[in-house]
Amino acid sequence: MSQYYFGFLPSAILIQNISELNQLVANRSNERYDTYRNQIVHLISKELLEAMLVKLIDNLPDTSERKAHLIKICQSIETAVDKLIDTIIGSASNQEVLPSVDFLQQKTLLVDNQGQQRIGFQLEENLARNLLKSFANVKQGNGISEVKNLTDLLTQLSQASLQHFLTDFTKTLNLGLLKRSAIPIAHGVIAKGVDIAVHKLLPQLQQEALERLVNYYGQLIVEK
Q1: Is residue 197 a contact partner of residue 60, using CB atoms and an 8 Å limit?
Q2: How many C-beta neighbours within 10 Å does residue 47 have?
Q3: Quick check: 205 and 147 in contact, CB under 8 A?
Q4: Do the Cβ atoms of 54 and 74 come closer than 8 Å?
Q5: What is the DSSP string of 159-224?
Q6: Dihedral angle at the C-alpha atoms of 72, 76, 77, 79, nearest 10 degrees?
Q7: Are strands 109-111 and 117-123 parallel, antiparallel or unpaired?
């Protein structure tokens, strides 16, 4: 039975950091793990935003009045995420970092059918199938009529991403009550920003741009 995943191709520096951290853990090194973990978290957040939103905005023509505004929204989201990471992730013992390493290895790293490493998470089957069905509908020339459904589905995808990379991941951290209470607030702020960006962007796209969009997103849905 097939399983579906969302997964983007990470940068070389992100793969290097993950590999080095895994090697340290495997060798039970006394070198600090938290330095690597913190860098990995920052890189994943940046590259996830690039995959989820920046590529969307790239589909807009440079003459679009909305493009500059949406770029600012992306920058605001990136700033908010960076502040959150700096607020909740700090120094930790090697033992305290191990749950985060396990989450990364077991639930975030995946290898696609071409043997490429990706950063992502397992998708609910209904969401994955509905996304693929919507993408196919756009490719058949029905992009304009599919905009509302596609908008709703991409919003669900962004919510699933936040659930995995923010809510689920932070459960692996040894946080006090004050820091943990900031997570739902940050979740709401980021979700609202993404929601605004998606809802403002998609209605502006014509058939050709919508086809480019679904072709790009289609590469991020992995069936195994």
Answers
A1: no
A2: 18
A3: yes
A4: yes
A5: HHHHIIIIIIHHTTS---HHHHHHHHHHHHHHHHHHHHHHHHHGGG--HHHHHHHHHHHHTTEEE-
A6: 130
A7: antiparallel
| Exposure string for 179-200, b = 16+ CB within 10 A, e = fewer | beeebeebbeebbebbeebbee
Q: Give CA separation, 210 vs 31, 182, 202, 216, in Å.
A: 48, 36, 8, 10
Alpha-carbon distances, residue 47 vs 112, 139, 221 (angstroms): 18, 27, 16
DSSP 53: I
In the predicted model, what is the mean pLDDT of residues 146-166? 94
Q: For residue 145, with 0-12 CB atoms within 10 Å meaning exposed, 13-18 middle and 19 or more buried, which class applies?
A: exposed
Q: Which residue has the tokens 């490719």?
A: 139
Q: Which two tokens stand for residue 57?
A: 């905005």
- Three-class DSSP category at 36: helix
Residues 46-96 pLDDT 10s: 999 888 888 778 766 676 677 787 888 888 888 888 888 888 888 999 999
Asked whether 120 and 108 are in contact (CB, 8 A), the reply is yes
- The rounded distance, in Å, linking the Cα atoms of 158 and 201 is 14
Amino acid at 172: T
Integer Cα distance of 112 and 223 in angstroms:
8
Amino acid in position 127: L
Rounded Cα gap, residues 202 and 210, in angstroms: 8
